[in-house]
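Suppose a classmate hands you a notebook page containing two proteins, each written out with its sequence and a corresponding row of structure tokens. How would you begin to make sense of it? This section walks through that situation. The first entry is reproduced here exactly as it would appear on such a page.
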Amino acid sequence: MKKSVANDQNLVQAYIKGDHSAIEVLINRHRSKVYTYILLTIKNQQLAEDLFQETFIKVIQSLRAGKYKDNGKFLSWVIRIAHNLIIDHFRKEKQMNAISNDDSEVDLFNSKKFSDENIEELIVNNQIRSEIRILINELPDNQREVVLLRHYGNLSFKEIAEQTDVSINTALGRMRYALINLRKLIQEKNLSLTVY
């Protein structure tokens, strides 16, 4: 099997069976998309490189532990791991950045800007995000990829077109169909995705 032309599933299986060069091919194949997704989300090159490495360490650990279900969606799975690591990073950063009220004449903590969501809003928003992620995962691969790159990776349609090797019109069309399909799924499942 020539690795450079083998599909992701074959390379994953080869790696699981002990061919360590297969993971290198997978990393090199998806390096640009995963790194760009991380960099455009956190906007810090050094941190993006760290998180990129963390992502593939986690990918390797998960593959070794048998946690990857071979469903032909390797890149989406890797992007989801990167996304979760980015969220973890922002959570840690938020916990470390405590604000003091001592140096200000204005009561900072009596400002809507610094107020947290109440527990009900937090639960509802987390539920909505979770339901949206589930719906996105039900989209066809090419539509899901555009949604993830656009809304989670903050890529422009020009960048998405370059990343996915299609025209801008095709990328726009995929997003349009993704939104139509998401609306249908929301109606079919009778979901309410709004905060009251």
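The notebook's second entry, a different protein, reads as follows.
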Amino acid sequence: MLLDRHRLLKSTISKKLFLVSAAMTLVASSWSRAELLIEPVFNRVDGTGGAENGVGVRQAVNGVQASLGLEPLWTAAPNEIFTYVAGDPRKFELDHFFFYNDTDQVINGFGLNIIGTGTDTDDPRTIVRDASVDARFGDVDGDGSILSDIFTNYSISDDGKTIEFTGGMLAPGERFTDIHLALSDNPPDLAGIDSWIIVVPEPNASMLALGLVAPLLARRRKR
């Protein structure tokens, strides 16, 4: 009887130790799977207009990648979404490539949203949309900042998956970089990203008129 109890107790302890070990293994594996960190770099490039190693925002929409059967690299209007793939290893060819604003609008910022995983930086059709993707925007190069020399402000969502650059101006014709620094302990590690341009509307004539009328009304009230 005592021998049976001893065997039962030993078996129970062994099962508990096995469960604890399995749980620790799962935790350890989750710790070892580092997330993908992406830092967009929008910096100004000298000169204006196009060149052999550059492409306009509108041109990217209407022909550059369309000839390859792929999606455009940037949209030509606010609120239009372009989806592409970026991550670690990053696309070093973009270090010597630039874009320029060939629209008739002043670009005031860019927005980006991580929407899933990808397997080919040249083909956005490889993206699998997954809200739980282990990737976020942040400081990759360790300089303590992800601000560009064009935009003075940025905001990141609580989950790190959406970033918006604002507070700058890219006038028609001006050039800029589109580099994505990236870091992961387990490359290749690529993410799908939705992107859009931000344009702040200029005050229209009615708003200007209202701004002129308000001080006149205030003066009349004082009198």
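A careful reader of the second entry would note: The longest strand covers residues 109-118.
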